[in-house]
């Protein structure tokens, strides 16, 4: 690609214009809104290079040479970019690619971010930690919510049994199923409210203070803010939880479960920080904590004995 000589907006500093002579930028920049002169800018006098520090030679009265001149580029090496720098390398300070040329990109895959010096937690570790937490919350619901669930099953059992008998006998009828009991709707609301409250009480306080639930401690992962390695605090932990936990109230129409499923798989498609939707709302990230080394044996060998 050949660019005609002329005055162009400097890609390295959009507030200025510089003159492109077909091979590189020359001359001093001018403001972008100024009227450029006709033709190239006047040549600048070369600046005198400062003398390198060192002892003065008594014979010649000049400091010794700083070293041998740099060797010319190898003819077998990569061809230079038309802008004057090798491929995949950043341009020199104050210079940019010629007009119409893209900026060089990072060669290959960029390195994975390490928030606060810690590696990002893998999706497998996060999933196992979440399943452990679900098991704990389910056990709490079995204790606190068990009676409400049992009463709800009794209220809807006539409808369920009639529907199952029609499926088994392959009966074709337009008669409606028996209605559920009068308390079925109230019990369903109570069950979902209690389940949501138990999940909130289990996860939010521990995440706010330590960044870890029981499942995260088992798997060695931790939730930290993106901005600083500090406790989340109750407000941030609540914002993180309610994006995933509040849809539990919509389980009666399956919408809540679908929202939670999308949130659960979202880290697989987020790069490079692997944030779930609830992480993005709270500006948090999940990191893998370093494994603590096993303690060394402090016993000393008695004098004269060989191990």
Automatic annotation (TrEMBL):
Record membrane topology: Multi-pass membrane protein
Pfam families: DUF2510, RDD
Keyword Cell membrane attributed: yes
Domain RDD: 121-282
Subcellular location: Cell membrane
This protein's record includes keyword Glycoprotein: no
Positions of the UniProt region annotated as Disordered: 19-108, 287-307
Keywords, alphabetical: Cell membrane, Membrane, Transmembrane, Transmembrane helix
Residues of the DUF2510 domain: 5-37
Protein name per the record: RDD family protein
Superkingdom in the source lineage: Bacteria
Biased composition annotated in UniProt, kind: Pro residues: 37-56, 65-108
